[in-house]
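Hi both,

Apologies for the delay on this - the queue was longer than expected. I finally got the flavin-adenine dinucleotide-bound model through. Below you'll find the protein sequence and the ligand SMILES exactly as submitted, and right after that the structure tokens for the full complex including the ligand.
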Amino acid sequence: MAVDPSYAGHAAGARAQGGSSSVLDVLVVGAGPTGLTAAGDLARAGRSVAVLDRRPDRSRRSRAFATTASTLELLDARGLAEDLLARGVPARELDLGLRGGPLRLPPLASAFAFALVVPQAEVDAALDRSARAHGAAVHRGVEVVDLAQDDGLVVVTTRPTSGEGPPTTWRARYVVGADGARSTVRRLVGVPFPGRTVLSSMVLADVRLTGGPPPERLTVRTTTDGFAFLVAYHREEGAGWYRAITWDRRREVPLEVPLADAEVVDRLRSARPDVGVAEVGWRSRFSSDERQVGAYRVGRVLLAGDAAHVHSPMGGQGMNTGVQDAAGLAWKIDAVLGGAPDAVLDTHGSERHPVGRRVLRRSGLMARGLTTGSPALRALRDAVLPVVLRLPPARDRVVGGFAGTTSRYPRGRGEARLVGTRATAVPLVEGSLTAVLRTTPGFVLVEPRDVAAPGPAVAPLMRVRRTDRGPALLVRPDGYVAWAGTRGQAPDGWRAVLAWWTGTEVDGRRVGPRGRARTPRADTRSPSDDRGSRGLGVGVPARDARAQEARRRAGP
Ligand SMILES: Cc1cc2nc3c(=O)[nH]c(=O)nc-3n(C[C@H](O)[C@H](O)[C@H](O)COP(=O)(O)OP(=O)(O)OC[C@H]3O[C@@H](n4cnc5c(N)ncnc54)[C@H](O)[C@@H]3O)c2cc1C
């Protein structure tokens, strides 16, 4: 798509209307958890960022309810976990109503070995505050209606959601399409969203129960006709508010059919007669689709979150996967803007597409397992599950998959086995990796414990030392291992890997146009090599000055 030259004229008028006449580094479409995470990280890195959302205010709807271990690590690395931990309920048990009783969640390779039950609205609010504090400009009541791009620029047209006022144009080096399941950005760049509806007419409600299950326990009950899921929003034993999700094959009605309190109560009682519903709060019918895009990138436009994948809410994966997409993407955009090879952005798709596919498979399997009407399959499920979930390797694999702690990215040929795994649980002489990233986002060199003393921190690199017998690691800003110094690897092999991801040597020299290290598998729909114009994006000292300049440019 070519940029219409007349856009320059539109842009001149845009300033007065609150648009951006200058070129932003990144324009994020969608102020949900995905967009706000991306915007916060990019603004924190000193990039000029604006976020556009068609809703006039932040959604107060209680959608996702659980924040998983790997997302908590990510929030901790941004200084946002502590407050949410104080507000939420750590769920550590799963009760499927099977023989053997509730299953205690196994120790996870994380400081957060639980799912934190906290309404999505609170996670969104924390990310919103953080993004603004770092200098991202969040514009609400602004709907994206058109998009064009060429080799150097993306031009986005918006109009006020209220319908009052002229269109505005925005120009940016990159656009993040984080505008949810019905993404306009995805449509405008022509990316199909193949898949199908798997469950229609589920009911989601916040209910106050007089006899609900204990807090800290995720409870699921199945019947021949459906299931009910309950989890507490409160920490005290006894009465309180719960999130309920129910599905009943006998009540598959169009989403527009009004949902009365009595139906919510009736659905819950058919699965759990003993819970005692005292009050029904927010409630909604929704259908659940399984869809995923084939390409996460079209030129300068990158898709993330629900815009790239949707699936059943079973296992509470939607918000978590979106936040992780964004955290993985933001540092790469920053690096490419700072001079890293364009191919770094292709790794957004090659890394996150397989993760999204696994999430679809995992949550789909769970949804089908819970909703099967076949007596034979139900009997098999009820006989096999309690056994499998008590076998440590199978249990750890299932729970680690939902928690995101076993998530890994593909590694290149000849790379150490640890490359692409998460490094957040590596024990350090001082503090934790998330604490290091909280104060100094960027690459971290984890040195082995037998090294006399860690070398000095040279931007863009932090150096820390591990306490166990593990090898040296180069850890990316998103907590994944980029290089591991296992036997047979050159001890300073990390230098070439760092140079590839950032476009800059540790001594400040720029690498050649294609970088020096491996080129990870690429998305097929990428433009040719493109290099940014500014300095290294992951450098520490440059950040503050850049942040000030970025705030100025991101507009109101
Ligand atoms: C009813 C319901 C229940 C759910 N329950 C769960 C659950 O229990 N567990 C779980 O993990 N997940 C659940 N989810 C999914 C979870 O809420 C999403 O995965 C998560 O919100 C995705 O975040 P996002 O930022 O990618 O997209 P969204 O949160 O959808 O944010 C996208 C934003 O883009 C904006 N936007 C859209 N189009 C435009 C445009 N043209 N211009 C400007 N802005 C635009 C929207 O206003 C919106 O604010 C549920 C979703 C729904 C709808």
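Main takeaway for now: Residues 343-371 form the longest helix (29 residues).

I'll put the files on the shared drive as well.

H.
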